[in-house]
What does this fold into?
Amino acid sequence: MPLSTVLTDHHLWLLILGIHNVSSWMIRVTMLAVVPMRHTPGAAMAWLVVIFFWPWPCLLLYLAMGSNLLPQRRLKRHQRLLRELSTVRIRCHQTLCALSPELPRSLHRISSLAETLGHMAIVGGNDGKLISKASDLSSLLVGDIDESKETVDLLYYIFSDDNIGGPVIEALTRASKRGVQCRLMIDSVGSGSLIKEGRVEWLRAQGVSVAEALPASLFRRHAARFDLRNHRKIAIVDGSVAYTGSHNMIDPRYGHRDLVWRDMSIRLKGPVVRQLQAVFLEDWFVETGEEPDLKQLTAPVDQWGDISVQTVPSGPNYRTENYQRLIVSAMHDATRRVIITTPYLVPDESLLQAMEVAALRGVRVQLIVPSRSDQFLVGHAARSYYQELMDMGIEIYQFSDGLLHAKTMTVDGELAFFGSSNFDIRSFALNFEINLIFYGKEEATAMVEAQERFLAKSIRLTSSRWKDRPLGVRTLESATRLFSPLL
It folds into this structure.
């Protein structure tokens, strides 16, 4: 090869290297000014660390996942609906609040805060049935759909055409052929397999309206970031029966042979169904643009029981992290005992401090988590907090009978939190979630009993046993904790 050619190639590589180095430093400096203005200090620090070491790859990653801003079209529809809902909300509030129960002073603060954050009041006159098995959930829902006369509205993060979701799909088609208005909303990423398999188009051909929540794309003019998801699980039949909780509409093994997800959902009748229906109608409108029938939200509603409950929607379209604020506030109010079940625990600083303060005040704080995790990075990040939590006096129990996926918290046996939200930064800040707060000793008893059953199948973690884990595992946990604000 001629010497001139070698020199030319050498100069070309030097030029490419020089451009790469200069552009890498330009990325670092630019993001140093941009990132802290768009994120919390913890999240900003994590992004800046990864961008410093890998500027170009992490710049592309940030462009795809770094902003929790929703598409402008979706935001405009949401703002328009809020304006239209202003008068409807007043009438709905008057209808439902006629059934509002009297609360003891110890619970009134949480109820008021929840109403301020989620715009929904506590309502009495409800009946509920807890469901632990996915097969039972599917069977009950199919039975209600088969008896439906007017509407069936479903919203699920993961929906699969298998032994759990399949019967529901068949029931939807039967209802649609009877003239029932059937609407199914599925998360674009969580239910990606149902979309790819062509079942969505088949359902539409059967008369079922299907919408994808938060379509994801790298070039996000009209789409959302890949990890900003609609994680809600809601089913409403004829505006009179509703389901919500942590179950996705899929076989509880999620494709695993040796691991079963343990969830909890609830079947509800009463005024609270109106609140869950309002959440669905909002999601449906902002995704499809179809005008919702808001009159059904103010229609008279029957009382079915004595349960007092409040719906708390949360997501990036709210000004604050609704559920996180309520969890932290309730933790500060606790006087005797707090029990938490969650598959993923990645606490932010305020939640960590609330747990610590509760323990220092003598509150017995019991945390039940799975012994195995299906999420590699999140699982290791969560475990990095265990020693710190145990040093605070918090009891940690590792559930051994499958993967604990129920998301619950009870406080002093008279307040219960229940729904789709994990106790991690992602659920608090990024995902659209739906949760319920149950008030009163009778209402919380069933939840505490379910938590006690989880405790009976768990092994308490001790500091001595935890410190015996290999050095490599501890190092991995520490490294993943650094990126916990991004997980």
